[in-house]
Amino acid sequence: MELADFTRLVEAYGADPKRWPAERRGDALALMKSDPGAAAILDEARSLDEVLDAAPVQAPSLVLRTAVAASALGGDRRRRAGHRSGQAGPLGRPLPRRLAAAAALAAACAAGAVTGVAAATRQVLPVRAVVSADPAVDAGRLLAEPLDAEG
Amino acid sequence: MNRGASDGEDDLILRAGRGDPQAVRELVGEKLPRVLNLARRMLGDPVEAEDVAQEAFLRAWKVAATWRPGRARFDTWLHRVVLNLCYDRLRLRRRSGGEPPDLADEGPGPERGLHAADVGRRVEAALAALPARQREAVALVHYQELSGADASALMGVSIEALESLLSRGRRALRVALTDLRDTETRT
Fold this sequence. Notes:
Chain A contains seven helices and no strands. Chain A has 151 residues and is mainly α. Chain A is elongated, with a radius of gyration of 26 Å. Chains A and B meet through helix 1, helix 3 and helix 4 of A and helix 2, helix 3, helix 5, helix 6 and helix 8 of B.
């Protein structure tokens, strides 16, 4: 590997060898030892890597985690509940709001992902809206009631 | 996403598809942070990123029950879904002439302290200013730590094209963030 190749590699992938393609990593590491010009190229790339690493990292909120988990389990609940009750529309059609919220809440609780008042539907909603603002949804009661009791 | 997806992951996906709460929890714990941050890098908007993450997982649950081990890597598939959803939103933004809020790169200023939040905002603004394909390349390789081969396959380009996108993207970022790099170097 020539210094020009090394430069192209580092300009693309940065200074961290773990990001370099495996098939070129060995040659690049060897060149680092043999060519004093490599150090400056690496320093330049490393300074950019460090700045890029300052980009905000967004941790998933509890509400988001709950909504996502509920969307897996709630969907299954909804299909079964809909099949039994005959009141839900075909797949993909929203259930009555209370039942959907109940299914999602029950599912989220089953996943151990929720400890408080949280409900989600199968729809993609703004996450802030996932926690039900519907005063008709009594979380405590929903937890105690079997889903089949829902109309 | 993670290098070396395994048979264990395929099993996890199938169990999640069957509604196994433990598998769902594990899959969400493992994938959601990366899905969310990929969307954040692409869109520069935390709320939109959450919406994309939710939608990506809805699609994941739909395929999980019938996931065929060995046919494709779930990581790669999920990345593609997230990117498609992000591009849909970027297209909508372009049509409506909208821009993500609060992402103006204020640039260096003598009175601006370089707190971590400031640096983060500057980096995010510089990323947002990149052409989308360059941003995608940088997001996949730098932030998601995908290999060049995986990233190029995901983007549907050759390794050479990927490396060109990466180089151009990093060069633009270097210029946009010069003052921050100087600060990092000094500290």
